[in-house]
Design a protein that fits this description.
Shape: rod-shaped
Largest sheet: 2 strands, antiparallel
Structural class: mainly alpha
Distance between the termini: 67 Å
Number of domains: 1
Strand order of the largest sheet: 1-2
Number of strands: 2
Order of helices and strands: HHEE
Oligomer: single chain
Protein backbone atom coordinates (compact mmCIF):
# COMPACT_ATOMS: atom_id res chain seq x y z
CA UNK A 1 0.00 0.00 0.00
CA UNK A 2 2.81 2.35 0.83
CA UNK A 3 4.39 1.88 -2.60
CA UNK A 4 1.25 2.85 -4.50
CA UNK A 5 0.78 5.91 -2.32
CA UNK A 6 4.34 7.04 -3.15
CA UNK A 7 3.70 6.42 -6.83
CA UNK A 8 0.56 8.53 -6.70
CA UNK A 9 2.44 11.38 -5.03
CA UNK A 10 5.27 11.19 -7.58
CA UNK A 11 2.78 11.08 -10.45
CA UNK A 12 0.86 14.09 -9.11
CA UNK A 13 4.11 16.04 -8.67
CA UNK A 14 5.08 15.25 -12.25
CA UNK A 15 1.75 16.50 -13.53
CA UNK A 16 2.07 19.63 -11.41
CA UNK A 17 5.52 20.24 -12.89
CA UNK A 18 4.18 19.71 -16.41
CA UNK A 19 1.34 22.18 -15.73
CA UNK A 20 3.74 24.78 -14.36
CA UNK A 21 6.08 24.41 -17.32
CA UNK A 22 3.14 24.71 -19.71
CA UNK A 23 1.94 27.90 -18.04
CA UNK A 24 5.49 29.27 -18.07
CA UNK A 25 5.88 28.56 -21.79
CA UNK A 26 2.50 30.12 -22.62
CA UNK A 27 3.35 33.26 -20.65
CA UNK A 28 6.78 33.44 -22.30
CA UNK A 29 5.31 33.15 -25.80
CA UNK A 30 2.71 35.82 -25.00
CA UNK A 31 5.41 38.15 -23.70
CA UNK A 32 7.46 37.67 -26.87
CA UNK A 33 4.44 38.52 -29.01
CA UNK A 34 3.67 41.55 -26.85
CA UNK A 35 7.22 42.91 -27.08
CA UNK A 36 7.25 42.37 -30.85
CA UNK A 37 3.94 44.20 -31.21
CA UNK A 38 5.09 47.12 -29.07
CA UNK A 39 8.28 47.41 -31.14
CA UNK A 40 6.27 47.56 -34.37
CA UNK A 41 3.98 50.24 -32.97
CA UNK A 42 7.00 52.21 -31.70
CA UNK A 43 8.68 52.04 -35.12
CA UNK A 44 5.54 53.29 -36.87
CA UNK A 45 5.18 56.12 -34.35
CA UNK A 46 8.84 57.08 -34.83
CA UNK A 47 8.36 57.37 -38.59
CA UNK A 48 5.28 59.52 -38.08
CA UNK A 49 7.00 61.78 -35.54
CA UNK A 50 10.02 62.35 -37.77
CA UNK A 51 7.76 63.24 -40.69
CA UNK A 52 5.70 65.63 -38.55
CA UNK A 53 8.84 67.29 -37.17
CA UNK A 54 10.28 67.72 -40.67
CA UNK A 55 7.03 69.25 -41.90
CA UNK A 56 6.85 71.52 -38.86
CA UNK A 57 10.43 72.69 -39.46
CA UNK A 58 9.67 73.30 -43.14
CA UNK A 59 6.59 75.38 -42.27
CA UNK A 60 8.61 77.31 -39.69
CA UNK A 61 11.22 78.04 -42.34
CA UNK A 62 8.51 79.22 -44.72
CA UNK A 63 6.98 81.49 -42.09
CA UNK A 64 10.37 83.01 -41.18
CA UNK A 65 12.03 83.23 -44.60
CA UNK A 66 9.08 83.20 -47.01
CA UNK A 67 10.43 80.12 -48.82
CA UNK A 68 10.38 76.42 -48.11
CA UNK A 69 13.83 74.95 -47.49
CA UNK A 70 15.62 73.47 -50.50
CA UNK A 71 16.56 70.23 -48.71
CA UNK A 72 16.68 68.40 -45.38
CA UNK A 73 20.26 69.52 -44.76
CA UNK A 74 19.04 73.13 -44.66
CA UNK A 75 16.54 72.20 -41.93
CA UNK A 76 19.25 70.40 -39.97
CA UNK A 77 21.64 73.34 -40.19
CA UNK A 78 19.21 76.20 -39.57
CA UNK A 79 16.18 74.84 -37.72
CA UNK A 80 17.59 72.25 -35.29
CA UNK A 81 15.92 69.35 -37.08
CA UNK A 82 17.53 66.05 -36.12
CA UNK A 83 16.87 62.38 -36.71
CA UNK A 84 18.83 59.14 -36.71
CA UNK A 85 20.32 59.10 -40.20
CA UNK A 86 21.61 55.55 -39.76
CA UNK A 87 18.11 54.22 -39.06
CA UNK A 88 15.89 56.44 -41.23
CA UNK A 89 15.93 57.86 -44.75
CA UNK A 90 13.98 61.01 -45.60
CA UNK A 91 12.70 61.56 -49.11
CA UNK A 92 12.45 65.33 -49.55
CA UNK A 93 11.30 66.72 -52.87
CA UNK A 94 10.59 70.35 -53.66
CA UNK A 95 8.51 71.55 -56.59
CA UNK A 96 8.83 75.27 -56.02
CA UNK A 97 10.01 77.43 -53.14
CA UNK A 98 6.43 78.50 -52.35
CA UNK A 99 4.88 74.98 -52.48
CA UNK A 100 5.03 72.61 -49.52
CA UNK A 101 7.66 69.95 -50.27
CA UNK A 102 6.89 66.24 -50.35
CA UNK A 103 8.34 64.61 -47.24
CA UNK A 104 8.38 60.85 -46.70
CA UNK A 105 10.28 58.93 -44.03
CA UNK A 106 11.47 55.35 -44.48
CA UNK A 107 13.29 52.98 -42.19
CA UNK A 108 16.64 51.78 -43.47
CA UNK A 109 17.09 48.03 -43.49
Amino acid sequence: MEQTEKQKIIKSRRWELVRQLTVFLIVTVLMIFAVTYVNRVYDKQSLLMIKQNAMRAAVECYSVEGLYPPDIDYLKENYSFTYNEDKYFIFYETFASNVMPTIEVYERK
